[in-house]
Specification:
The complex is a heterodimer of chains A (166) and B (233). Chain A is of the alpha+beta class. Chain A has 2 domains: 100 residues; 47 residues, no CATH class. Chain A is built from 5 helices and 5 strands, in the order ααααβββαββ. In chain A, a hairpin with a 2-residue loop joins strand 2 and strand 3. The model of chain A has no long low-confidence stretch (mean pLDDT 92). Chain B is mainly β. Chain B folds into 2 domains: 48 residues, no CATH class; 178 residues, no CATH class. Helix content of chain B is 11%, strand content 33%. Chain B contains 4 helices and 17 strands. In chain B, the strands form 4 sheets. Chain B has a 4-stranded antiparallel sheet, with no helix packed on it. In chain B, strands 16-7-8-17 form a 4-stranded mixed sheet. Chain B has a 4-stranded antiparallel sheet with strand order 12-13-14-15, with no helix packed on it. In chain B, strand 3 and strand 4 form a beta hairpin. Chain B is globular. Classes of the chains: A alpha+beta (166), B mainly beta (233). The interface between A and B is large, with 65 and 58 residues.
Chain lengths: 166, 233
């Protein structure tokens, strides 16, 4: 009995930290980098670092958790321990998936292929503000009411790659 | 571009209400307001600023008849900013404040970083005065409001280094076009348009150098330019 319990816990000792690491990869950046919250320089630096490694780390943790539970599932005895193990696994797998999603572009859709129209055909009010550039003689206007939503427009103007931001 | 590499950017986060973007090619994070890479393989790199104007569409179209305009995305159009978005934004709380400074957090300023100095000009003051003469660092500049009474441009006030800085006066635009005389300089008596070019008088054809400026909230401008001064004359 005691041996069985020990064997079950030994599996959890591996799976739970893997799940925790994966969840940290997901939750820490979301917690730190969110609107209407002050970001300190150090915490932002840490959160951005975690964001950059999150897809790889969370995937490795999820794969590790899956592998451990597949190979050692028979050791995981008792409904309480099994429930905990399954929740940990689901957490790790969900994190591995969610760290690959750019939530900011879910809120503000990315412009994959920005399109443009001639000035005399544009349906923009005369009084609306635009951000205007001229590069190598080519002129471009980005209505602020549009770019304030998309935030980022990758473009090529006058042969030069530019990114218009607002 | 950075280091010869052409980058494609995505919205990727926020830092004290100024957004972060990430490039697809290296995964580096860049701060929008500064164009500086803050995290990742290219950290420390700096994107080159392209001079831009913030104008009314009507004035821009008058100047740039052959220009192209970003088209709206139909599926997203319902979420585009309403016409009074700037009024609504004024009521949005800030997460970073600088009490005991010259301005309030959501005061709108025109920020200029030039000649090794940074200076903030309250936008309502510029729009009220129509033409402001000032100095940044040791250089004279003029801030000019366009014939549409909303657009603002900034110019280096002298044509050549070492020239004495002339005094400028606001004229009344005849028809409000981009090439109508808008202001004149006392030294030569030349008339200048909103493009910053002399359209009449002794200096006809000469153009003043435009100075990049950004419309920003005081808290954000002050955050990235801690040594900034404020125009209060």
């Amino acid at each position: 009995m005691a041996q069985a319990r020990f064997r079950a816990l030994s599996v959890l000792v591996v799976v739970l930290p893997l799940a925790l690491a994966a969840l940290t990869c997901l939750v820490l950046p979301i917690y730190v980098i969110r609107p209407f919250r002050h970001q300190g320089a150090t915490e932002l630096s840490v959160a951005l670092f975690v964001t950059r490694i999150a897809p790889a780390v969370s995937l490795a943790c999820a794969i590790g958790a899956v592998a451990v539970l597949i190979f050692f599932w028979r050791r995981v005895q008792g409904w309480g321990v099994r429930t905990l193990a399954i929740f940990a696994l689901l957490g790790a797998v969900a994190s591995a998936w969610l760290t690959r999603i750019n939530v900011y572009e879910l809120m503000f859709h990315h412009l994959d292929r920005p399109e443009f129209t001639a000035a005399d055909r544009a349906h923009v009010d005369s009084g609306d503000m635009v951000i205007a550039i001229r590069v190598n003689g080519e002129r471009r206007a980005y209505p602020i009411r549009e770019i304030a939503y998309h935030h980022v427009v990758n473009d090529r103007v006058g042969g030069v790659p530019v990114v218009a931001t607002y | 571009m950075a280091g010869g590499l052409e980058l494609t950017f995505h919205l990727a986060g926020i830092n004290n209400q100024n957004f972060l973007m990430r490039d697809e090619q290296t995964g580096t994070y860049w701060q929008q307001i500064s164009g500086r890479a803050v995290s990742g393989p290219l950290a420390g790199s700096q994107l080159e600023l392209v001079y831009s104007d913030e104008l009314t569409f009507g004035l821009w179209r008058n100047e740039a008849a052959a220009g192209m305009v970003l088209k709206p995305v139909i599926r997203d159009a319902s979420q585009y900013a309403p016409s009074d978005w700037d009024v609504r934004m004024q009521k949005t709380p800030t997460v970073l404040d600088f009490p005991n400074t010259a301005l309030r957090s959501r005061d709108l300023v025109l920020g200029i970083a030039a000649f090794d100095s940074a200076r903030a000009y309250p936008v309502d003051r510029i729009l009220r005065e129509k033409l402001i003469e000032d100095r940044i660092g040791s250089e004279p500049i003029i801030l000019v409001v366009g014939p549409d009474e909303k657009s603002i441009r900034v110019f280096h006030a002298r044509l050549h280094p070492g020239d004495p800085a002339p005094e400028y006066y606001r004229s009344k635009p005849a028809r409000g076009g981009a090439d109508e005389p808008l202001y004149m300089d006392a030294a030569s008596g030349s008339q200048w348009s909103f493009r910053g070019c002399a359209v009449a008088g002794k200096l006809t054809g000469a153009c003043l150098e435009p100075i990049p400026a950004v419309k920003d909230y005081w808290f954000d401008w002050r955050n990235y330019h801690p040594a900034t001064t404020v125009f209060r004359r």
